Amino acid sequence: MKLVSASSPQWIDDNKQHVLLTATFDGCEPMPFQATRGASGFVGDIFDRAERGEFGPVAAYSPPPLDADAVGAECRRRIYAVASQNAQMNMTAYIASGTANDADKSAFSRFLAWVQDMRAAYAAIIEKQVRGFEHDDRWPQCPPDVVALASRF
Questions:
Q1: Are 37 and 6 in contact (CB under 8 A)?
Q2: Contact 111/83 with Cβ under 8 angstroms?
């Protein structure tokens, strides 16, 4: 297989081990082609030529966008870890019944504020494409009195 032309090289990983380019081989239409550092034969040769700039400057790696569904699932998981859907409904009914004491009303208000903070964190993670969204430091901490209130339901 003989390379006729190549263009538009772009790194496809952070550590510059793989480059994607548009390649035309003898008798073929232009096609996407991935070359890998250290590969044998023509694949390694194409990588070396791309890295030297023979096909134009290699565009910087651009990570794929975050999966909003995965970030949303992490947000829900964290909220439900404090208060399941049933606990949330029961807390709401308790507050609405008018029998809750002031401390519980205050904790419930902080719960609602924390859920709003979680939603805002979700939106910021998506907007800023924050990697490592699974880590605790990316999310607001739930106030201890909220955890205590939810644990009763």
A1: no
A2: yes
